[in-house]
Amino acid sequence: MFYSIVRSHSMVRPTPVCRRQADPLMVQKLWTAINFIRSQKQVANSDRIERYIQREYSVAPDEIERQLNFAVADRLISVYRAVANKGNNPGAEQDGYRVQPADENEVL
After folding, report:
1. Phi, psi of 93, rounded to the nearest 5 degrees
2. Sign of torsion, CA 4 22 41 88?
3. 18-103 is classed in which CATH architecture?
4. DSSP-based three-state secondary structure for 96
5. Spatial distance between the Cα atoms of 12 and 15, rounded to a whole number of angstroms
6. What is the 3-state composition of the chain as percent helix, strand, coil, each rounded to the nearest 5?
7. Cβ neighbours of 68 (radius 10 Å)
8. pLDDT tens digits along 31-78
9. CB 95 within 8 A of CB 45
């Protein structure tokens, strides 16, 4: 972990600096997509996220997948296993994505 020096009146203390892999603007787009999909009571899987971002922002699918993986690695988005209850194939498992709460994103 990298540290930067913060100088306050008479005290010098290091503060942690967090380096992210994901593009901040793309992370905001991913958060918007996940929140929109989840507001419709659906699992925010990678296919739905890709379709939403392509429709709204015209971003290439491979870039969306890459940035989604970076956001997961940076712990800005969490992955969970969802099991389908309705539809054509009940019981099928798929990876869902959730936005991490704000307090979990802070650097320790």
Report:
1. -95, 145
2. negative
3. Orthogonal Bundle (1.10)
4. strand
5. 10
6. 40, 25, 35
7. 23
8. 999 999 999 999 999 999 999 999 999 999 999 999 999 999 999 999
9. yes
